[in-house]
Specification:
There is one protein chain. This protein is 12% helix and 26% strand. It is elongated. Strands 3, 4, 5, 6, 8, 9, 13 and 14 form an eight-stranded antiparallel β-sheet that branches. A five-stranded mixed β-sheet has the order 1-12-17-2-7, with no helix packed on it. Strands 10-11 form a two-stranded antiparallel sheet. The chain is built from four helices and 17 strands.
């Protein structure tokens, strides 16, 4: 298995839209994917000797969610939400789970990620992470315990890269301060930071060792399974098919509007099929006009007229026939 390694705790995350597979390939890309997220902790007195807490050094249960780039649950330089604060100060999961659920209700997140056990450091644990092409980003965090408000995690890790799911991804985990408690050491008493400060990466005491701060562990995302849906059985995934209702393995789109000819009787490209398109069709009937040759047989004939009639009065801004980025669905671009 090829593993990609990210030596940063907050990978930039923008979902990438895939292109259709080449003619003859199996259905791709898959709409959904499942990952096993393995948290391997290496935090010990040897790796981080300053002020190391000998009383049960551990990490709280992992918590977070999968989402798109319309929502961010935490980011360095931004104030921590209540969910991040409660996770970082107390290892409490419910407030952050509630925030992810609110994002799910708003259509910006897909699933809550919630482990059932923390780990004593050093050690390891794992949790399942489910993503889709529309929600390919993973945010997962865990409290460094004991500590005032310190945590490790990743924000918006993109698991769908260059049109496909990554086989494996390793993220180095560095310590962060949530900015909600001013305690300087692991065992400091509660000292609320008023007003709260933006979350920041800790580059000094007590994690500095030999002039550098080493990772406290890693998150490894291992691809477990994928699901590919191909409703019209043309080997092109529904996630990117430019004609969802008609098999068109070649994805032929002669006018380049993002809607395959097999579903595109909108000859004037105004996103509606009307009498104007019928008139345009009549002007090229019995020719080899490519745009009006809906079925791709090399001629504009009565078969193509039947296709036009089947789409008559269609409004592509409402019922878009393409899952690919196209002129009638600008939100997908």
């Amino acid at each position: 298995m090829n593993l990609t390694r990210l030596s940063l705790a907050v990978p930039a995350a923008l979902a990438m839209f895939a292109t259709a597979p080449a003619f003859g390939q199996a259905c791709a890309p898959a709409q959904e994917a499942s990952y096993q997220l393995v948290f391997e902790s290496v935090w010990t007195e040897n790796t981080h000797p300053q002020d190391f807490p000998f009383n049960n050094p551990h990490f709280s249960q992992m918590v977070g969610g999968t989402h798109n780039d319309s929502v961010t649950f935490w980011e360095a330089g931004q104030l921590a939400s209540q969910g991040i604060q409660f996770m970082a100060e107390f290892g409490s999961k419910p407030p952050l789970e509630f925030e992810v659920q609110e994002a799910i209700n708003a259509g910006t997140a897909y699933r809550i990620v919630s482990a059932t056990s923390g780990i004593v450091s050093p050690g390891s644990t794992s949790v399942e992470v489910d993503v889709t092409i529309d929600y390919p980003l993973a945010t997962v965090v865990s409290m460094i315990a004991p500590s005032p408000d310190w945590f490790i995690g990743t924000s918006g890790t993109n698991l769908f890269v260059d049109g496909d799911w990554v086989d494996g991804l390793v993220v180095d985990l560095y310590p962060y301060d949530a900015g909600t408690d001013s305690g300087p050491s692991y065992l400091s008493p509660n000292q609320p930071t008023l007003p709260p400060e933006p979350a920041f990466r800790i580059n000094g005491f007590p994690f500095l060792n030999g002039g550098t701060v080493q990772p406290l562990g890693t998150y490894t995302f291992n691809l477990v399974d994928t699901v590919c849906v191909d409703s019209d059985t043309d080997t092109v995934s529904d996630a990117v098919d430019n004609c969802l209702s008609v098999a068109n393995e070649d994805q032929r789109d002669t006018d380049g509007d993002g809607i395959g000819n097999a579903c595109d009787a909108d000859l004037d490209n105004n996103c509606q099929v009307s009498f104007n398109d019928l008139a345009a069709f009549k002007s090229v009937v019995f020719t080899t006009n490519e745009d009006a040759d809906f079925n791709g047989d090399g001629a504009v004939n009565f078969s193509d007229l039947g296709i036009l009639k089947s789409q008559f009065f269609a409004d592509f801004t409402v019922d878009n026939p393409s899952a690919a980025p196209n002129v009638c669905a600008p939100a997908r671009l």
